[in-house]
Amino acid sequence: MVSTHPTGVQHSGSQYLPQSWDTNTNSSPNQELLPLTARVHDHDLLEIGGCDVTTLVEQFGSPLYILDEETLRSACQQYRDAFKQYYKGESQVLYASKAWNCLAVCAIAASEGLGIDVVSGGELYTALQAGVSPDKIYLHGNNKSREELILAIESGVTVVADNWYELHTLVEIAQPDDRAIRIMLRLTPGIECHTHEYIRTGHLDSKFGFDPNDLDEVFTFVSQQPALNCVGVHAHIGSQIFERQPHQDLAAVMVQWLRDAGKYGLKITELNVGGGLGIKYIESDDPPSIEEWVKAICEVIQAACAAENLPLPKLLSEPGRSLIATACVTAYTIGSSKVIPEIRTYVAIDGGMSDNPRPITYQSVYRAVVANKMSSPLTQTVTIAGKHCESGDILIHNALLPKTEPGDILVVMGTGAYNYSMASNYNRLPRPAAVVVANGEANLILQRETYEDLIRQDRLPERLKK
Ligand code: LLP
Asked: How far apart are CA 356 and CA 184, in angstroms?
């Protein structure tokens, strides 16, 4: 099998197949793909956060997103600690909540001292309801509505202004007696990076941010608006990036913006380098560690500021995927299968593109294990098919698994980012439940949708009723 990973790199699946669990060492070569607390108990059963996965499915139903609190907290701490270690100025990590925005996840990130990046009124509302302090919330978006901007201003969050239309709208909305609106400016740095074209944002031909050629005009305009308090600049170059160089180039470019802003009398004190650090979805993926990524950026910014004789800005970053992807797995129940002799065997699960649209959208590659057969030999290569009425609804091509039967629990790893947040009700499948697990305790954080939920927004006009 050859499949395209978001990095654009071709992976030959057979080279990187997962191994079964070694019960002598209680570890497996692909353990890095699982949450930190994953272990095998009673010879064959997968446990996460001290909870047996098959029991979680019995208790909360299937499919089920299982979020390991320790892995998420550990990633938050790694970012925080790395900035503390490598950056001499003030820093703030924001969780890019588009990766998975819900009350519990926002609350965990905030409790680790992280701020939250939101991109819509809905994400903003959720972060506020989760108790996140508005001064640590940043609202993004290339086409924010008036209502979203008003909610942001009234809540006191920072608006990351993306374009001229938005700047003019902000000036229009601003009330003469109110405090100036705290904004940052999103600029397009013109940096290419190797990732799937849909998740690349920093190149010049991007829908996001001001064109750097407009810098002079933008800084002039903003410096003349008493209604706007421009505190910083922002850029984000893309997602699932393994190279360090593009982020280092970005950091250098941003320090030049900082220097230029001073010429317009703007007191820019914050610099947000965005997110984008990739994660390991399969064995051959080799992203830098969080610490390496942070160190690389801090070094460039500190050196560039020293060269320009600029004080160090408050350094913001907004990782999403690298904070939460590995912390979550999705457990499915295996049902039907179809053997096509000499061609392939399809093994179907009770979810698919509605709970994980990444394979069909970006040809993303995932790995899976069978939670009730962790140390069984891997004897079959199968195609994991979703249950949607769509031939492309394949979660994993050529998964090497133990012999499976209906009722087995298939666990797909690395599903914390852009799975629940991109989930849909395609074919009117109710969205799965999600639990957070820690120290043997499992708590529901997202209730499973019911059929009643599915028709809650439906209206049947009187004339169509029988
Ligand atoms: N900041 C901004 C402005 C962003 O647009 C993004 C992601 C992030 C931060 C967080 O990037 P991360 O650290 O998660 O790479 N749905 C796609 C990913 C889209 C990313 C959108 N922006 C996927 O499933 O791969």
From this structure: 33
